User: Fold this.
Amino acid sequence: LVIKAPSLATEQQLRAFVSNSRDKAYVEEVIRLYPVSGYSPEIVIAQWDVETGHGSEPEWTARLNPAGIGVTDARDFGYSWTTPAAAAQAQIVHLSAYVDGYNYGLRKYLGQDPRYLLVLGTDWAGTVSTVDDLAGKWATDPDYGQKIADRVSRIRGGVTPQPGGKLSFGNVPRPHIVDRVIPDSRNWAWDRLGQRMVKGVVYHRQLGTNWGTDAWFRGGGGGIGLTDYGIDSKSGEILKWNDPWGKGGPGVSTNRSPYASGGPGGTSGDGTAFVKKLGRIAINRDLASIEIDRWYESPISEDGYSAIILLSAHLADSAMVPWTDYPYNPHTGLNFVYWHNEFQGEKPCPGKVVMDATAQIIEDTKQIMKKYQE
Ligand SMILES: [Zn+2]
Assistant:
């Protein structure tokens, strides 16, 4: 996503993204400054959205700081602005220091950003082209660019951030799932960590066959591991070993958070963001584990693939994630889709075949969600 680029959103979409008069005044100024700066207004607004929690954080509500200007990991310089328009000017000027160094069109507004000269004096001045380039410069969060990109696609999709506005949930069909929920007496590889919820999914590879794993979890592996679902990569058959919403039954405790995706390992990528926000305890509690059977290099048949996207779409829809946001989950402010190795870096799981297919899996999952949510 190149910052200095033509807008792909209509002014109507930009305006519809915010609701109160203060935020609307901010958006108007961003729109007005677009021909002046040349920066895509949806990117500027998306950055504001990430930085202010859609205009909800005190930095914005109390002092109109649009994007953490003068707020570093170490301290907050406490800058404030008097109008939303001045805040928009400051943000765009600050951005210009990174993107252009000096942007002639913005010369009248340079005084709005008390930190402009500071950036201009660094080697970062004029080095930023895309939103990903901002990570490590404007913000320390390595996922900063991705977060902005998620918001940009929402603005361009014309979807307001309140999920449920125009979409309906609960209509994505549940794929056929064989109930193989394992009783407590056969498997105790789980903890009571409170109410289970589905805030995302974790893809795994089984390193065995679906029914072989079924036997393992209720036999030798009863104290070692447990996951929620297994998918046969050839036939597409789905087995359920544990309920991701914590439903119990005869001989089955409620809220069994299985020894599935967590553990002591190092996190990376989206896994790091997840743990930072919800804590390590949430990995096994708040994420449904999906194990695709056979080995890291084993191909996945069409039936196996269908089962993956159908189950993922059903879970995401049950969690009321709008298809327009997927794989972003607006309820958590985090991604919905994870790999096991994003929580346990020392494991290659789910391996090359699943990892290479993930972008397509996400896209196809999204299309199923769209079909039923629209
Ligand atoms: Zn795994």
About this structure: The chain is about 35% helix and 10% strand. The pocket of zinc ion is lined by residues 204, 340, 349 (CB under 6 Å). The longest strand covers residues 200-205. The CA atoms of residues 1 and 321 lie 24 Å apart.
